[in-house]
Amino acid sequence: MGEFWIFPGQGYQHAGMLHDVPRSLIDKVQNLTGVELTDTDEAYQDSIQIQLGILTLQIDQVNQLKKAGIKPQIVGGHSLGVFGAAYAAENLRCEDAIRIVYQRAKLMQNAYHTGYGMGVVVGLSRQQVEHLVAQVNSPVDPVFASNQNTAVQIALSGKLTAIQKVIKLAKRRGAQTAKLIKVPVPSHSPLMKNVAKALSKDLREIQIFPSSIRYLTNYSGMVTQSIDDIRYDLGNNLIHPVYWEQMTDVALEFSPNLIVEFSPGHAFSKLIKTKSDIRTFAIDDYGIEDSLFLLKKWKRG
């Protein structure tokens, strides 16, 4: 087996992350969307800047690795990261990835202007968190258990007042950590149904290409090479939890010889190190030039 490439989503964006991205790619994003990427902390308060910025960074890193002769055998993206993963797997053209992420960001930004978001509970099982959620969730105060990054790291999505109530209950129950996170919409919950419906409609106009590279779906945690499955995941992962723990377990069953986490951040490679001794590498830890040097060195053996 070859390499497993990981693509994070929102949450780890930071000023200066686009410093090494070629101007030509920044200009391409502006030509396709009308958005001028602004690589500052102030700009990254805006969902459109965040999502397009992260995708642009990941596209550039994929391009540089492939130019150096480095390719994955299996890819997995977390939330927004599915678009970087689909581009790396050669299921999506660069231009189509940029256009559809722009549309996704606009739809998400317009869906909930204020009062909604996400949280995280660490130290309780999914069953325990779902029990707490059931005590709070109502039509007036909706909240849902969403992404599962580990067996005891469960995200919450919904109305902020409801999330705060679950956080309070989780702390009483003995959670190691329970807090809000920097996501301004209730992603990966039924509250995103209208966004997913509109996005799926747009995706019907975009060609998804077959590929020999395996793609891990967010909505099921399973591996696929089916165009229909990939199209569904790109359009509908916002209404499903991200089963990241299952995705990584499935990837590890293919015995990759190297795991590469694309920018921004290194949280997911750190999680994998707790369950596997496979060499794991985050581009953010070295920068793209040193990363290319090390990856080419390892490729040569």
Short key terms for the protein model shown above:
single chain; 301 residues; alpha/beta; Alpha-Beta Plaits; 11 helices; 44% helix; globular
Tell me what the structure shows.
- The chain has 11 helices and 10 strands.
- It is an alpha/beta fold and 301 residues long.
- It is globular.
- It folds into 2 domains: 3-111 and 190-299, Malonyl-Coenzyme A Acyl Carrier Protein, domain 2 (3-Layer(aba) Sandwich); 116-181, Alpha-Beta Plaits (2-Layer Sandwich), CATH 3.30.70.250.
- 47% of the residues are buried.
- The protein has a 6-stranded mixed sheet, with helices on both faces. A 4-stranded antiparallel sheet has the order 4-5-3-6, with helices on one face.
CATH homologous superfamily (4th level) name of the largest domain: Malonyl-Coenzyme A Acyl Carrier Protein, domain 2
Structural shape: globular
- The largest beta-sheet arranges its strands as 8-7-2-1-9-10
The level 1 CATH classification of the largest domain is Alpha Beta
Q: In whole angstroms, how far apart are the ends?
A: 15 Å
State the order of secondary-structure elements, H for helix, E for strand. Answer: EHHEHHEHEEHEHEEHHEHEH
What do the pLDDT scores average to? 95
Task: State the helicity in percent bands.
Answer: 40-55%
Overall CATH architecture of the largest domain: 3-Layer(aba) Sandwich
Low-confidence stretches: none
